[in-house]
Specification:
Blueprint: E1 2-8, H1 14-27, E2 32-37, H2 56-63, H3 69-72, E3 74-75, E4 81-84, H4 95-108, H5 111-115, E5 119-125, H6 131-134, E6 144-149, H7 153-169, E7 176-183, H8 190-201, E8 205-209, H9 213-221, H10 225-228, H11 234-247
Parallel strand pairs: 1-5, 1-6, 2-4, 2-5, 6-7, 7-8
Antiparallel strand pairs: 3-4
Helix pairs in contact: 1-11, 7-8
Bound molecules: adenosine-5'-diphosphate and magnesium ion.
Length: 252
């Protein structure tokens, strides 16, 4: 089982990249589980016909000890197993704590043993890397971390913070930065800016994803480019990304 995490600044394109990556991997024959770790709970919506599934936290609140795996694991496009950790109402409670409770519940319910995914992908908000948001890079949850960034300063700032957090935890866990996914915003000299930042961070660009309107067309229809814009150049791009991620990750 491969276990990877996708981190990056809010709004940078993590969930879009992750759900298209999951779809590409699923169509290649892999059993994928995508776990959204963002209080917005919208990581998997493009695999679920545009709908937000109930989160683990919501179901814990609603059902207590009666919760079962079918309450929180939903099969989406291509058979991708979709999970959302959920989070508290904005302004009340700690969002990171939500991730911890959700992970504990998934372990208690034997989610991995039951579904036996080939790849688990955590899609994690990286503006803050407090205890909860650092969960996927600690305690063996994810082995390789891929950071999504554009050439914008704040996105690169978040990328640097995430890589620092990973290095801090390196002794306690074994997560490593697997590379940076450049999700283009078409700013001037974007690739050069990101390449320079990668040298400082100590990583490299896995792949550059172009800015493409097909992504929004598919999203507006409730899905990934694999489902809704089948003639798009983006299919080859995400297939290539899937191959590169597979090549940079190890079994465990
Ligand atoms: P995050 O999960 O990092 O908060 P999202 O994946 O939700 O960000 O992306 C935010 C918006 O950016 C979405 O509406 C999505 O359609 C758009 N988007 C992401 N990547 C691209 C891209 N390469 N080209 C065009 N639009 C994109
Ligand atoms: Mg997201």
């Amino acid at each position: 089982m491969k276990k990877i995490a996708i981190y990056g600044k809010g709004g940078i394109g993590k969930s879009t990249t992750t759900s298209n990556l999951s779809a590409a991997l699923a169509l290649k024959g892999y059993k994928v589980m995508q776990i959204g770790c963002d209080p917005k709970s919208d990581s998997t919506k493009n695999l679920m016909g545009g709908k937000i599934i109930p989160s683990v936290l919501d179901k814990i609140k609603e059902k207590g000890d009666d919760i079962t795996l079918s309450d929180v694991v939903y099969e989406g496009f291509g058979g991708v197993l979709c999970v959302e950790s959920g989070g508290p109402t904005p302004g009340i409670g700690c969002a990171g704590r939500g991730i911890i409770s959700a992970f504990e519940k998934l372990a208690e319910l034997n989610a991995f043993e039951t579904y036996k995914p080939d790849i688990v992908i955590y899609d994690v908000l990286g503006d803050v890397v407090c205890g909860g948001f650092a969960m996927p890079i600690r305690d063996g949850y994810a082995k390789e971390v891929f950071i999504v960034s554009s050439g914008e300063m704040m996105a690169l700032y978040a990328a640097d913070n995430i890589s620092r957090a990973i290095k801090n935890f390196e002794k306690r866990s074994y997560a490593k930065v697997g590379g940076l996914i450049l999700n283009s915003k078409n700013i001037e000299d974007e690739r050069e800016i990101v390449e320079k930042a990668c040298v400082e961070i100590g990583t490299d660009i896995v792949m550059q994803i172009p800015r493409c309107a097909d992504i929004q067309t598919a999203e507006n229809a409730g899905g990934t480019v694999f489902e809704f814009t089948k003639n798009s150049e983006m299919l080859a791009i995400y297939n290539d990304l899937a191959d590169k991620i597979l090549a940079r990750t190890s079994e465990n």
